[in-house]
Amino acid sequence: MNPLIRLSIILFALLGYSAFAAPARLAIVIDDFGYRKSNEEQVLQMPAAISVAVLPNAPLSQEMARKAYQSGHEILIHMPMAPLSKQPLERDTLRPTMSKEEIRRIIAQAIHNVPHAKGMNNHMGSAMTADLAAMKLVMQTLSHYQLYFLDSMTIGSSKSILAAQGTSVQTVKRNVFLDDDQNEAAVSKQFNQAVKMAQKNGSAIAIGHPHPNTIKVLQQMLPKLPANVVLVPVSALLPSAPLVDYPQHHAPDTEKTKKPATLPDNQLAATQPIQFVNPCPTQESLNKINPSAAYSTLKNLLGYSPAVWSIYSYLTYCTVSPPVKH
Ligand SMILES: [Zn+2]
């Protein structure tokens, strides 16, 4: 069969199929970075699509933020905010009674202490985030720095989303806490709930901490993520984020974005750039269609559906270039 006709048939078949096969997007954030070096370094060994939230006044804040950046992870400032309950607080915890100037100073210092941050989420904060006036001051400050806000949802009556209205700050909410109960079985159950929520709603955000059992569960379960779920950084779930072209991790030019060894292909797609190919010149022989270039075109048209990739791989290897036997 003419290769162009064959490609067209595949294209139209996959267009119909892909409408039902768009992968669900799951963002996982590991909070409280800055205190437990070896645990946090284990998190940084995980897929780069895992985001990390760094406390701004911890002993290792700058060091861990730099390491996270170098390994391609998205970074959030884990901003201490006042809780309703009495408990030991981090230095420069934001409180509802603070003035605009004080909130600005503390956020500016936090941005300095956590280099390369793209967003902010709250550490504790059941009192602060429930205060609309105070959260408006936070959002007005964040709008000057182009940081998004992930509401950790430590209280159901949080006003963060309302407070951001009328500003340029984009907001998202946490859906699942992975390790309120640090028991391994409990963390696994929460992880599965986050996966199911992503599959049901199209996306989900889970927050965990660098506890040994959380790390263990993630190491075991991330490589086994269902094929229809893709791991993404938090910024991929912002209202303005494109559905298919997930933002690239901002590793420095000299540092190649980490390609996680254990990450399945469907998740690697989220960390790889879309490559556009030039249209085939009509005067060229139709037999010169290159399978990889054709796949790039299909990828751009159809998105990163693993199901699409599976079908295309099968059709390509069975009809264009048989796999090499080792
Ligand atoms: Zn925290």
CATH superfamily of the largest domain: Glycoside hydrolase/deacetylase
> Which architecture of the largest domain would the CATH scheme give at its second level?
Alpha-Beta Barrel
Examine the coordinates and then state which fold CATH places here, giving the name of the CATH topology of the largest domain. Answer: TIM Barrel
Helix content: 25-40%
Query: Helices and strands: which structural class?
Result: alpha/beta
How many runs of DSSP E, i.e. beta strands? 9
User: What low-confidence regions span 5 or more consecutive residues with pLDDT below 50?
Assistant: 245-326
| Strand percentage | 5-15%
Computed Rg:
22 Å
Q: Sheet with the most strands?
A: 9 strands, parallel
CATH class of the largest domain: Alpha Beta
Our count of helices gives 11
Could you say which overall geometry the principal axes of the C-alpha atoms support? globular
How many domains is the backbone divided into?
Answer: 2
Question: What is the ordering of alpha helices and beta strands?
Answer: HEHEHEHEHEHEEHEHEHHH
Report the average pLDDT across residues: 80
Termini distance? 29 Å
Instruction: Name the hetero compounds present.
Output: zinc ion
